[in-house]
Structures are given as C-alpha cells and as structure tokens.
C-alpha cells in the first residue's frame, strides 16, 4: 500500500467526515511531555509552547508522521484562570506551532479549550464564558481550521463552551471526560451528547479519563441517544492509552497509580489496532487518543484503518505490518513471531509477580 503523499489543497473537517473519511486525531501531550521533562504534574499547564517550543514541535511532528490528520493546539488549561498573564502568549504560540507542523502534511489545526477551575465553585456562566471567549479570540486571529471543547466533567459547562465557540462560525467538536455512568451531575452519556449537539456541536464524543474499552461503551450510549433524538452529529473518541477497567466514575485520576506509576497499564500497539477497528465498526470516524497515547499508538490506528484510508502514514516505512520485519531476524523463534496471529493472541506479562492486576480507586 502506498504511503501518504505530499499535501495539496486541504479539505475541512466536516467535508472529510461528511464524505465518510476517517480522521485520525493526535495523542498525548501532557503526560508525554511531563515524562520528557517539559510539563509539571499537578498544574498540568501548557507553558512549554513558550518555554520549550522545540519539544512541542517535535511531538507534533511525531504525531503527523504517525498519521494524525489534526494538530490540536497545546492549550490545555491555558485559560486566564489557570495561567494568569501568560495565557495569551501561550495560546498564540500554541497556534503557531500547530500550524507550522500541520502545513507539512495533510493536517488541520484545531484550537482547543477545556473545563475551567471556576465551574465547580462558582458556576458563573458569564465569567466562565469570558474565559472561553478570550482563547477563542486568539484562535480566530490565528485562523485555526476548527475548534474543540474537550475534557469536560459537567455537561452544563461543556454546553457553555460550545455556545461560545460557535460564535467563530467554524466547526465545533465537543468531548467529555466521562464514562458510562455519565457526568458528575448524573447526566447520562446519551443526554450529554444530545445537549452538545443541540448547542451546536457538529462532532461529539469523549476524551481522556478512561481507557479504550470503556470509552467505546460510552460512545455507544451517545450514539444510541443521538439516533433516538433524531440528531445528526459525527462521533469522536480519544481515550487514554492505558488499560483502566478498574476506574470509578472519576476515571484514572482516582487510581493510586496516577500519575507517576501508570506504565504497567500501557496499551500495546496491537490493543490499539483492535480499538481502532471497533471504533470504526461502531460508526466513529474521528479516532485518536489522549493521555498515554504515544505516536506509535496513533500509527497503529492509521495502519489498522489503512484499507479504508487508502494509504499508510510515513512512519510505517519503518514498521512492518503485524511484525513482518521480524522475518529478517537471525533467531528462528523470533522469526516465528512475524505474523498477525501471534500478536493478536499474545497475553503479555507485566513482569511484576507481586503486583495486583487491578487497583481500587481512592475516591
């Protein structure tokens, strides 16, 4: 199969999705850049775009080579309530970095906002919308291709975000960080999806907090409710790159391993190929990842859905399909692993004989 060609005239996000095209999202920034020494855990803010732009640029490039169609601005928690006087410089730099890399391939730039620190305490709609609008003004000035409201625990605040983003007259995607139990006010995933679509989101779904399996269960509930309500919206899923079947309602942040001991839970590339296929079969066409989703995970999505997309990503040039590169190994028992059946059926060991397979959430 051919590799992706050089960029030409780019189709917009809705033009792609309306035609049934698969859009591959990007992956982990906060967790990955924290491991690389550019983000501080706890605050989880994105000043690295100003302090260490090369690190952010490099990660964007890795996702682009892996097959991402979207360079999302690294603007998580980049609102004034969390970054004070830095917020504008951070949002501006993030847009510039995302556009620089997107222009090197067939990728769009998405300006991203997330939940504020104010909602849980004040629920001041006017003040919260002002924070969203400040970021939107930068995204508009930088002419991003579309907008994403992501990582919302409460449907009400997510709806406020969508209402503000719609003011730019660009396509809006909205994802919530919820599982099958719904948001923190007890609103079901289906109800959340309906509220977001009615507010004007053209793309709805979930991101972060939960692993691929749980996130797809939530997406199924969203899809069913959208259909029952007679609403049309494209579906989007960007889960964790970790196995999290033991999460409670709050997701992985409540597990004792968060955030510094999650490595034993990392999904394999083969797990992610399975996730990509299941998401596609569910009708999801915007498929990516969030925390813990490394570039090789994004490549796994792009490779699994290469038959539908019609091409492989550039980084597949160094990756044999289903381990086929092992055919050249000198040891016969390793050459025997160069087949799909081996990797699909492998039950990988953790190497930790005294550790449990599951944990109990702290909350």
From TrEMBL:
Cofactor(s) this protein requires: Zn(2+)
Gene Ontology terms for molecular function: betaine-homocysteine S-methyltransferase activity; S-methylmethionine-homocysteine S-methyltransferase activity; zinc ion binding
Superkingdom in the source lineage: Eukaryota
Signal peptide annotation: none
Gene Ontology CC terms: cytosol
Binding note for cofactor: Binds 1 zinc ion per subunit.
Chain residues that bind Zn(2+): 208, 290-291
Residue span(s) of domain Hcy-binding: 11-305
Keywords: Metal-binding, Methyltransferase, Transferase, Zinc
Catalytic reactions on record: L-homocysteine + glycine betaine = N,N-dimethylglycine + L-methionine
InterPro entries assigned to the protein according to its UniProt record, in alphabetical order: BHMT, BHMT-like, HCY_dom, HCY_dom_sf
Any single GO BP term: methylation
Gene3D superfamilies: Homocysteine-binding-like domain
Pfam families per UniProt: S-methyl_trans
Pathway(s): Amino-acid biosynthesis; L-methionine biosynthesis via de novo pathway; L-methionine from L-homocysteine (BhmT route): step 1/1
Quaternary structure, from the entry: Homotetramer.
Its job: Involved in the regulation of homocysteine metabolism.
This protein's name: Betaine--homocysteine S-methyltransferase 2
Protein species of origin: Phocoena sinus (Vaquita)
